[in-house]
Amino acid sequence: MSASNLPKSKVDSPVPSNSSNNHTSGSEQDPSQKPASKLETPTSANVSFNLDVKKDEKPSSKLCRACTDFKTWMKAQPAITQVEKKPVECPLDKNELGSNTWSFLHTMAAYYPDKPTTQQQQDMHSFINIFAKFYPCDYCAEHLREDLKTNVPDTTSRHNLSQWFCHTHNRVNLLLGKPQFDCSKVDERWKDGWKDGSCD
Ligand SMILES: Cc1cc2nc3c(=O)[nH]c(=O)nc-3n(C[C@H](O)[C@H](O)[C@H](O)COP(=O)(O)OP(=O)(O)OC[C@H]3O[C@@H](n4cnc5c(N)ncnc54)[C@H](O)[C@@H]3O)c2cc1C
Description:
There is one protein chain. Mean pLDDT is 76; it is low at 1-59. The chain has eight helices and no strands. The chain has helices at 8-11, 26-29, 70-80, 94-110, 118-134, 138-150, 158-176, 186-192. The longest helix is centred in the last third of the chain and has 19 residues, at 158-176. By secondary structure, the chain is mainly alpha-helical. Flavin-adenine dinucleotide is lined by residues 94-95, 98-99, 101-102, 106, 135, 139-140, 143-144, 166, 169-170, 172-173, 175-176, 181, 186, 189. Its cofactor is FAD. Residues 1-52 are annotated as: Disordered.
């Protein structure tokens, strides 16, 4: 990022003040006074900073790195280093919930047995029906329950279950005006990765 793109407050480093329009101590303005020795270690007491801040802009406590010795500058770091912002963890909205849930459902189908036992087939039936009762987006769950009346889950194999979820998801996509997913690619998307190797 070029300096011109930076917010003003980041571009304008406060500088030790020698110019008359800065807030300076009386001793610095007195020409009879010895100028600050180069050997003198700058401290918050003997270095003043340009605090020419705009309205509503917090005065910066940044030391001017180029005008301060490294030791002093380093000492000031804990106070002025910006801690990287961690993304806030918040409850899911409908779309986040939907996307995460589809990821789980398609992945679950991708790892379902090729030849499930009768018990596994019944369990998957039960899981889908119970899922449709408790899915926490009320109207989404209602749509799914309606859908299940005419589109009975096919739990007879991994391939069939994956296709069933894909077509179920596509009916929701249709309802929402989203593009249809090519169900021949469901294993590439959810199990093996794309044929072009982009997931390898
Ligand atoms: C059971 C269920 C019912 C829902 N019902 C509603 C509803 O009634 N109204 C509503 O507003 N929202 C509903 N949602 C949420 C909605 O489906 C989306 O999850 C949400 O809009 C976010 O969409 P998205 O663009 O992030 O992608 P999503 O639709 O969440 O898809 C996530 C990813 O899955 C892949 N994908 C897309 N389609 C398919 C497919 N057919 N097969 C395999 N993979 C696919 C794509 O890579 C996509 O990026 C429902 C969600 C679920 C789980």
